[in-house]
Amino acid sequence: MTQGTEAPIESITLQGGAGTLAGWETTPPSGTEKRGTVVLVPGFTGSKEDFEYMLPLLAAAGYRAVAYDQRGQWQSDGPDDIAGYTMDDFTADLLAVAGQVSPDAPVHLVGHSFGGYVSRVAVVARPERFRSFTLLASGPSSVEDIKFPPPQAVAQIVETAGQEAIWQQMSAAMTAAGQLPSPERMEFLHQRILQTKKANILGILENMEAPPLADPTALRDAGVPLLVAYGDTNDLWDPSVHEKFAQQLHARTAVYPGSGHVPNETVPDRVSADLVNFWEELA
Fold it and tell me: What is the pLDDT of residue 5?
């Protein structure tokens, strides 16, 4: 699977609990066997654009692929009050999206980072809506075994200095890791954070103060096939943390040597190929 096979990305509008959600969609080319629908959920300070390179690849393999900005992110509506960003709110939006794009059949679910937190809660709540679930660079929690400042400390900085403070931290981390994207991409990332609602950032940080599931084995017991996929450069979670988590969940694993927290951007062809292989094994 290579990036040379392109299916056009179309903008779509979805309905969430706090207004419209901006989405991207790719569909299989004419003549390609249609294998199912995929929903991809971005993480903290992310957006649908995090899956830009993967969407055409998944469509070329026969999957309708939909990614969306979560409430308050980038181009999606969202409340100005932090009270509108509970885990229940994010989860209800995801379930609404799944119902809109595939009302009659379960979808394959991919959750990146915090998007994986939201996704696992949705899977436990409504397992019948999901054919599979992939945790992409999404470890057990933000409470321990993670290279991330305490969420409360980050929230205090955002309260004082706004979204720009998060951008300064992120750009410094990318520089230190030697992972600076192109100037155009950097400008997009900067503008995206500035356009993401402050309440979204603070709300997610508040959610990060506790594990997304009180008992992670509830995800295993939901009965939905699981894949834990991650890079091995220890950007946030040490690879051993992901591996232990996968064992706890009885999940399959996919590892991307030399990739960090965003294998969906650094090795999209490999991630997409692993997803397709995983899904085809379930067919």
Answer: 53
| Number of domains the chain is built from | 1
Reported as half-sphere exposure (CB side, CA atoms, 13 A), residue 223 has a value of 5
CB neighbourhood size of 19 (10 A): 12
At 205-232, the pLDDT tens digits run 999 999 999 999 999 999 999 999 999 9
Supply the range of the domain harboring residue 79.
10-282
According to DSSP, the residues that pair with 231 across neighbouring strands are: 256
CATH number at residue 268: 3.40.50.1820
Looking at residue 265, what is its pLDDT?
94
Task: Please provide the DSSP assignment of 138-176 as one string.
Answer: --S-SSSSSSS--HHHHHHHHHHH-HHHHHHHHHHHHHH
Rounded-to-integer distance, Cα 234 and Cα 259, Å: 9
Output the pTM of the full model.
Answer: 0.95
**In a domain? residue 1:** no
- Cα 282 from Cα 216, distance rounded (Å): 23
| Higher pLDDT, residue 103 or 183 | 103
Where on the phi/psi map is residue 70: left (φ > 0), alpha (ψ -120 to 50), or beta? beta
Token duo for residue 253: 């694993």
Q: Is residue 4 part of a domain?
A: no
* CA proximity to 124, closest of 14, 230, 211: 211
